[in-house]
Amino acid sequence: MFAVEEVNSNNSLLPGLTLGYHILDNCGRYPWALQNAVTLVTGEEDGCSLTAASASTPENQTVDKGILPAPLLIGGFSSSSAIMLSRILSPLSVPVISYMASCPCLSDRTKFPFFFRTMPSDIFQARALAQLVLQFRWTWVGVVLPNSDYGHLMVQAFKEELIGKGVCLAFTEVISRQTISSDAPRVALKIRDSTARVVLILCWYTDVHKLFLELKNINLTTCQCSSLCPVDLLYLQVTDRQFLASEAWSTSQALLQDPDISSVAQGVLGVAIRSSPIPGFEKYLRSLHPITRPNDAFLREFWKQEFGCSIAAAPSTSSPSSPSESLDQNVPLPSCSGNESLQGRQHPFTDTSQLRGSYNVYLAVYAAAHALHSLLSCPGGDDDITSFRNSTCSSPKHIQPEQLLQHLSSVNVSTPQGGSFHFQGADIPATYDLVNWQKTPEGSLELVLIGRVDGLDLSLNDSVVQWSSGYSQVPESVCSKPCPPGTRTMPRKGKQLCCFDCVPCAGGEISNVTGSPHCNPCPPDFWSNSERTACIPKELDFLSFNETLGITLTTAAVSGATVTAAVLVVFLYYHQTPVVRANNSELSFLFLVSLKFCFLCSLVFIGPPSVWSCRFQQAAFGITFVLSISCLLVKTMVVLAAFRSAHPSAAAMMRWFGPAQQRASVCFFTSIQVLICTVWLALTPPEPHLDLDFRGAKVTFTCVMVSVLGFSLVLGYIGLLACSCLLLAFLARKLPDNFNEARLITFSMLIFCAVWVAFVPAYVSSPGKYVVAVEVFAILASSYGLLFCIFAPKCFIILLRPEKNSRRHLMSK
Which residues of 568-581 are buried (b: 16+ CB within 10 A; e: fewer)? Predict the structure, then answer.
């Protein structure tokens, strides 16, 4: 009524015309709604219906006593009645604008082409609730729904909105209106026993009331000391369950004003139909008086209940008496004085602080007014109906519903408050209020607006929210707590994805965010830190002088070189003795020098590799060992030649094993190794290389063999000389001599060959820097074997048994 009068007073909207209306109530009965709708659109009134319609008439023109056919209806209240009216009136092409029907099915233009609404679809409500859950990072939510299309559609839309966003439903419980007495206790126990701390309730407020009473009976609330009164130890009852409310009960005054459930309902967070102020509406309501509106049966009834007096109905009223008037006919009430007024009187009727459904009605009236204005604003024309039959314009006397439908679908609606909208199919842009049930100092609950959802945009003031726990901290509702950085989630077998275990990331992988579903591998030259939260550069790993292994090998090498030098000094000091002079002392001195280089060349393998160290270490190793083996080989050949020189056939053999020939033989054997190393290092030399494929916190820095063939030739040539020396020494081991050096060479070659045969598989299978350590160990082991097997017995005789250091002793059989 206020909206229509406001439109009529607006000179720019429907100028020269007065918008009329007829209002009736179907009292929640579908047959009445159907009967009255038919009455409105046909203009044929029967004795049982109350007149209600929307019409436009020229200014100052009286309306006939019969009902004019209504080109548009505003109603019904529920989705069921709106579906029924839309289907019945569809053949007549009469547009229907509902202000409370929210069923998503009504958005289907193929089934309901003439339906509009100023109430958002429940799809948008489900999306708003899902945004609320995501906003506070709740991943474990329980749902209680009514056993109706509304409940099941809401849950389905709620689930679809949360797909792939890490939210799971802990439980889904259904409540039926017919079995609420048994359903409420069952659902209350489920809520208490569930690990979900957030519960979404989609039921009607009467069902919610029974459920909250059951929750209170099973002691869901706990007592906590109030921070406001620490001295008096004032305890407050709070609950550790946070309830989310749909618009079906989020603004229910019956629940807010019930003290029996305040301890359970405190902190409820809900989505509500958007509210908006209507300027002048409160003043309009307070100015109402039955004297100025003698035909308003509702106002007379309200006056009687509010002021306890009666006002006689106007004689001209055609409305039947209301049921309450009929019931109270025998109760005498004093007549009203006429001085009664609503000014300054506190009553829910005059409370316009939060207009929700009323604002939807307001928008519906303005949508109808703007559509009529657009329809009637065509220039020219006359009142002949034939001139408008095929036109999108009309005259006030010949408004066709299908013409009004076209304008209603495209018109841009504006309100005096500055708001505007246009219908998008059947719907208008969805907007919801976010409300919070907060406890007042008096102990009662009040509804507080904390934010708004506009389409997909959620704006919320977290600081003003009062949670059910009584604390300012957002409650946590998760099946499993988010995994800290350095771990990843591993779903539990047979459980929902929200229930998982936290598994530490493997070496070389990190997760630097909370709740990461997987660990990310580090780049090849990086490795994970100990917390597995960051990738750090790998540490260069090589055989170093500073580590235990490097120190041990260095000590062994230096010790071997020192012992070799000591033996050389002893031999130089006793160079005239028979033991030193036997078997060519010159080759013995050359062998000791080469053996000392064998010990020292192992030091080149220790330390950070470089281009020149990689080349020099293999060449030094190969040449020094060939020089040592060549000396032993020549000495063995000399022994064999000497013992066979007594035979006439072998007399000429000694001419080929004189001192010059021995030196030449050593140089020849060594020069072959020098040639192999030169060609190898010239073509494909070893190079320093970072082994990034090795999984570990360190990257191995070693000399890699670019050509395996070159290294194989070096080792193969050393092995050939060693085997030849072993064979010859073995043949000469039993020659008659008190001091036969061939036996010493045989033992030394056995040790040498055993070491290098074991070296090959150990070298191939060793990881990282241990490849270098294996080669150094083989060098030192074989060098020590040669040194001790050959020179230990000689030094023993020279130093400890000098009586045996004589020619007669050495030459004896």
Answer: bebbeebeebbbbe
H or E segment and range at residue 460? strand 457-460
Judge whether 577 and 513 are in contact, CB under 8 Å.
Answer: no
- Domain ranges in the chain are 2-119+353-416, 122-275+431-464, 288-341, 487-537, 548-811
Retrieve residue 27's tokens: 């009292």
To the nearest 10 degrees (0 to 180), the angle between helices 585-601 and 611-644 is 160
Q: Enter the DSSP assignment of 468.
A: T
CATH superfamily of 2-119+353-416: Response regulator (3.40.50.2300)
| Nearest CA-CA partner of 101 in 489, 85, 109 | 85
Residue 77 φ then ψ, to 5°: -70, -45
Structure tokens that stand for 215 in this block = 């929750």
Model pLDDT for residues 319-363, shown as the tens digit of each residue: 444 444 444 455 678 888 888 889 888 888 888 888 899 999 999
Q: What's the sign of the alpha-carbon dihedral 482, 486, 488, 489?
A: negative
Quickly count: other Cβ atoms within 10 Å of residue 422's Cβ.
Answer: 15
**pLDDT confidence band for 97 (50 / 70 / 90):** very high
CB 209 within 8 A of CB 258: yes
In tens, the pLDDT along 172-200 reads 999 998 999 999 999 999 999 999 999 99
Judged by DSSP in three states, 96 sits in: strand
Please say whether the beta carbons of 238 and 222 come within 8 A: yes
Task: Give residues with Cβ within 8 angstroms of 601, minimum separation 6.
Answer: 617, 620, 621, 624, 779
Is residue 445 within 8 A of residue 251, CB to CB? The reply is no
Residue 194: its pLDDT value, please? 92
CA–CA distance, 707 with 175 (Å, rounded to integer): 80
Reading the block at residue 801, the tokens are 């048994």
* pLDDT for the residue 635: 82
Kindly state which CATH superfamily the domain 122-275+431-464 is placed in: Response regulator (3.40.50.2300)
pLDDT tens for each residue of 47-85: 333 333 333 333 333 334 444 567 889 988 888 889 999
pTM: 0.67
| DSSP secondary structure string for all residues of 284-314 | HHHT--TTT-TT-HHHHHHHHHHHS-B-PPP
CA–CA distance, 622 with 505 (Å, rounded to integer) = 46
For residue 96, CA distances in Å to 40, 76, 422 come to: 12, 8, 15
pLDDT for position 314: 64
Q: Closest Cα to residue 577, out of 405, 757, 809, 408? A: 809
The single-letter code of the amino acid at 580 is V
Please state, in angstroms and rounded to a whole number, the distance separating the CA atoms of residues 628 and 161.
Answer: 82
Fold assignment, 548-811: Rhopdopsin 7-helix transmembrane proteins (1.20.1070)
CA angle 44, 49, 51 (to 5 degrees): 70
Domain 2-119+353-416 matches domain 548-811 at the CATH topology level: no
Q: Is the dihedral of CA 641, 642, 645, 646 positive or negative?
A: negative
